Amino acid sequence: MAALVLREIVKRFGNVEVIKRVSFEIADGEFVVFVGPSGCGKSTLLRIICGLESATDGDVLIDNDRVNDISAARRGLALVFQSYALYPHMTVYQNMAFGLENLRTAKREIATRVAEAARMLQLEPYLQRRPTALSGGQRQRVAIGRAIVREPKIFLFDEPLSNLDAELRVSMRNELAQLHRRLGTTMIYVTHDQVEAMTMADKIVVLRSGSVEQVGSPLELYNAPANQFVAGFIGSPRMNFLSGQVVEPRAEGALVDVPEMGALQAPARLPAGARVTLGIRPEHIRVGGASVNGVQGSVANVEQLGGLSYVRLAAPELTVQLPGQTRLTYGQRAEVNLPPETIHVFDADGKAVPRLAGLPL
Known about the structure:
The protein is of the alpha+beta class. It contains eight helices and 20 strands. Strands 6-7-8-3-9-10 form a six-stranded mixed sheet, with helices on both faces.
């Protein structure tokens, strides 16, 4: 197991800076997820950590040792790729043992490590099969097992589940979480899927255009996003955003004029005339009943999922998440409430505005 520190990491390809002064720490034994849209620098950062790419500037420290000039093979890390990268002519056992054989590990030690990894990953019945005889999930477990037998200081996963179908991804997420609990090893996981990030991580690093937007636990990012980008990226369905202008500062919260909605109370101290964006998550919107922030809209679509429902409103555009099933139908007028204490406020630059004291989510 190992702790990791990234200190002012910069990566340039020619004149293009793809990683921009990235710094953060990962504690020994943490499961950390790098999340962000395609092209934000997640995989490049992972490759810098494992030594497949060199940083243009900055330092990578593993257990307080600077490893910038140490080769990938000598860093003691294991990388699991999206594409499995298994040798098709080898059996499962041979694929898992191959790396140890190259390190001239004793055969008895190899057999012990492979057997333990196969037991842990429920691969024992498949050790003499070749990858072509396995399902996608089984192949990914073999790739993970190949990493486990090396007993690395840190596991690195580069979108390992993206080739699997939706049901299998859920199952594999659970298996990886259980594996982390059993091994207690530091794990770094790259994904563009915020659901994977929310369900697996001890800590999430949100990246955009090569910069870190926010670092924190899943619920910290969900409940207190640092900016509008994080608020919109974390959470499914995504947060509703409403642009408006402050018309009246008040002690209990500013009144913000929002087109098609009128004046809404926002839980922040704001000057008159300020341009802001209000954010509210779909599950915080209430249907019917009296409220300070009551608005009416026309139902544009209803998605009934059995255990919950999504109602899309038009004029104004809002997504509402309701528990259970709903009788609302297309074209119906619906009155909804936006409780002030659940509203997030972002300034003209997209930065979160501090909430008024006494109004937690």
